[in-house]
Amino acid sequence: MIPFRFLHAADLHLDSRFSGLAHISPAIRSYLRESTFAALGRLVRVAIQENVDFIVISGDVYDVSDASLQGQLRFQEALKELGQHGIHVFLIHGNHDPLDGLRLTTEMPKHVTVFGGHKPDHSTAYRRKDGQEVAIVSGISYPTAKVTDNTALTFSRKPGSRLFHIAMLHGNVDGDLLHETYSPCSRRDLIERGFDYWALGHIHKRSILHEKPAIVYPGNIQGRSIKETGPKGCYVVDVDEAGSPTLQFHELDYVRWQVRELSIEGLSNEAEWIQQVEQVIDEIREELPELMSVVRFRLIGRGDVHKVLAEKGAAEDLLSELQRREAVRAERKDYEGLVWVEGFAVESGLSIDRERLLEEDSFLGEMLRLSVRTEHTTEALEELINSALKPMLENQELRKLLSDTSQEEKLSWLRSAAEQGITMLGEMEGTPEDEN
Ligand SMILES: [Mn+2]
């Protein structure tokens, strides 16, 4: 086989609106809106610098089926630049930008192949430097937004061809329940089709489902919400003489989303908590000086500060102040290293004096004593768990599920039930410390 190199991307979602963010300054909003285009620009640069022979884009180029004029023009511009470098682009449409969507009916330039929606056609890919045939690329687009058939089964290799075969599919492999189950299929279905590389799109989280043949989701090129955290980008794939692909991930995103945990344990007052938050923000700025970051804090652990967070709304107050500071940065056009705090999820609890509670003659005390007792004797734990789960054990399915539960899992249930009970009862009765 002749060695070659291609770039695999998917889910560009150009011109996403980022409508989920509240209280965002207009400058930051427009920067966010520009980010999908900026990531596309970076994709073009990676393709040129890495000298790829061609590109495959596996669906959802646009965020909505009636793609904005700006979105389409910016995509055309990117395609044009790739064309000037002789880089061929293979493209399919997905559930967000199906073939029947309202878009400009512009004719695609010669170096762009858009696969139709009837059956996966075969198209030949060439090596740029000498024009040699190196791969057969097949793909199928979504004719309409909802494709619920297993279209993977309609793919087959080009008869008689021994070239490297790439299949482009926008769909849900092995029923990822977090995404809509369009073009549902199994890993086995794909492996059995005999292709060398499945260039997938649809699931926005990057993952390599299988090595040989390669079954790959590159993820989207720019995160668009707090559910899409971490680096986003594309794969550059090198295929060697033996037909083995090696994948290298390239970051393309301009705005990085992340969730940070922050424990309030051991913090003695509000000021210390604020200092902690600010310190994490500085750390993010240092880690990602060239990107804008959007961060959500999950406040966890037990401590005195919980009261200030839960009752006085300290988290909301600090949030407004932090957002104001970053809005000032944005006005100075200082977007690199900007850290936008999207919100605080208060999951922390009140601090408790466990030792004293264990002695206390109260419902809470009794509950805690029961939990400690059962933690140390297997029989008592079994008895408690069985009586708590009795209504569920009447159901055959649930009984089967529960029979597989390990001792450690049961212990962890017990501990978290005790912790939750303490927090809930403590909040109802006022904390033990309140009595001091
Ligand atoms: Mn998508």
Largest sheet: 6 strands, mixed
Q: Spell out the CATH superfamily of the largest domain.
A: Metallo-dependent phosphatases
SS-based structural class? alpha/beta
Q: How big is the Rg?
A: 27 Å
Average pLDDT confidence is: 90
Which topology of the largest domain does CATH recognise? Purple Acid Phosphatase, chain A, domain 2
- CATH-defined architecture of the largest domain: 4-Layer Sandwich
Element pattern in H and E = EHEHEEEEEHEEEEEEHEHHEHHHHH
Shape: globular
Identify the strand order in the major beta sheet: 4-3-2-1-11-12
Helix percent reads 25-40%
Distance between termini? 79 Å
The number of helical elements comes to 11
Q: Identify the bound ligands.
A: manganese (II) ion
Count of discrete domains: 3
What is the CATH top level name of the largest domain?
Alpha Beta
Describe the structure using short key phrases.
Purple Acid Phosphatase, chain A, domain 2, Pesterase_YhaO, six-stranded mixed β-sheet, 11 helices, 3 domains, binds manganese (II) ion, Calcineurin-like_PHP, Mre11_N, Metallophosphoesterase, hydrolase, 21% strand
Provide structural commentary.
The chain has helices at about 25-50, 70-85, 185-190, 270-285, 305-310, 315-330, 355-360, 365-375, 380-395, 395-405, 405-430; strands spanning about 5-10, 55-60, 90, 110-115, 120-125, 135-140, 165-170, 195-200, 205-210, 215, 235-240, 245-250, 255-265, 290-300, 340-345. Strand 9 and strand 10 form a beta hairpin. Helix 1 (about 25-50) runs parallel beside helix 2 (about 70-85), helix 8 packs across helix 9 and helix 8 (about 365-375) runs antiparallel to helix 11 (about 405-430). It has eleven helices and 15 strands. The chain has three domains: about 5-250, Purple Acid Phosphatase, chain A, domain 2, CATH 3.60.21; about 255-345, no CATH class; about 355-435, no CATH class. The termini are far apart. The protein is of the alpha/beta class and about 425 residues long. The strands form three sheets. It has a six-stranded mixed beta sheet, covered by helices on one side. It has a six-stranded mixed beta sheet with strand order 5-6-7-8-10-9. It binds manganese (II) ion (MN). The site of manganese (II) ion has 7 residues, from loops. Keywords: Hydrolase. This is Metallophosphoesterase. InterPro entries: Calcineurin-like_PHP, DNA_Repair-Maintenance_Comp, Metallo-depent_PP-like, Mre11_N, Pesterase_YhaO. One of its GO terms (molecular function) is hydrolase activity.
